[in-house]
Design a protein that fits this description.
16 helices, alpha+beta, about 20% strand, binds zinc ion, 9-stranded mixed β-sheet, about 475 residues
Amino acid sequence: MTDYEAVIGLEVHAELLTESKIFCGCSAKFGAAPNENTCPLCLALPGVLPVLNRRVVEFAIKAGLATHCAIAPLSRWARKNYFYPDLPKGYQISQYELPICLDGRIDIEVDGTTRPVRLTRIHMEEDTGKNIHDQHGDASLVDYNRCGVPLLEIVSEPDLRTPAEAGAYLRKLRQILQYLEVCDGNMEEGSFRCDANISVRPRGTAAFGTKAEVKNMNSFRAVEKAIEHEIERQIDLVRHGEKVVQETRLWDPDREETRSMRSKESAHDYRYFPDPDLLPLEVSRQWIADVQATMPELPDARRARFASAYGLPAYDAEVLTARKDIADYFETAVRAGGSAKAVSNWVMGDILRIVRERKLDEALVIRDWPVSPAHLAEMLTLIDDDTISGKIAKTVFEQMVATGKAPAAIVAEQGLSQVSDSGAIEAAIAAVLDANADKVAEYRAGKDKLFGFFVGQVMKATQGKANPGKVNELLKQRLAE
Ligand SMILES: [Zn+2]
């Protein structure tokens, strides 16, 4: 692979989190019964006219501002013509020669180096319906719920060179859209979809090779793998003096290879023309300024602030701001009284571990998580004021996850309070030392290592509830006598 390099450009389709569809009032929510969210307009019955959803434009402007795009004062709607059962009008309303956002940039970080990837454009369009094959014998069914759900198409320049860079770009783009709360970024449900344009050329040359487009990847891992395999396939062809064919290829996750789609589908002639039913879209400076005023803090800024304002290590700041919901959770717990580093440790340790174990990564909405930020802060206070030890806290935390109860209630119900009372600890120590007179003699004769054994025995005798600091202190006193 050293004498060739890959040239990769990505096209992302992001479904927008608007309540209603782009040109009608139907719900845009995922998961309804087939064809429940439809009306004469999105079913393309005769005599209907599209009415633009203002929120879609606002979401597009947000995405454009967050990725350093110029927002076009005038953009135009176009009809993209093709015939397929999931597209009842026979055309898709999209934008073509005048998109709403142009010339942007996303900064990606790979192997510790940050570099910009240019965006060609972001445009708005409507999604298509969904064909369902193989469920009713020979019949194919169509679900039009997704017809007219608003999409942003985000097109990068061919600035990416490796699968890792493509992965970093996609993660960063998804992170930005999630922070803006314009797209949930769920690749498995298809609300964040990626097509990759890939070509190879001898390293050091400027001309582009013939590109192939790869589709059908529904996870970040699949995107990286598909690109890797496609690069290898193309280099292999070129090395053997064969030609790369310009075509659309599908990623087959089971066989881990790309294969050619029917040529009929890759040979579209869309015959774009301006949509006569929709006026050109004018976006005033005032509208852009109004949207700008609603922009949230973006991932890079939040990461920098977490490091400086909370004194967190760079790694913590990175992990905690990877997702907006996790960053929000962290900040709410700190505001509820948890110390920043302690909250960070629990979020990065136990919480994200459980999230991973339950494979909640993609779908997790941390606000539905059973342990509220306030409860986490309350538990940290119980550790700080010596009500529970760090060790018992692990048990309490498991119970909090299982029941959603407040930590103080769990401690009270189950008698998990730490024993700091000297009398009780001294009694346990006395019992342990009496039962191990031989070891006490060895210790006093100089075998210091046995101290840990005595601590362990006392903790066991108190079911882990003795205050470890107190145990250490009182043991030392007794053994020195
Ligand atoms: Zn509708």
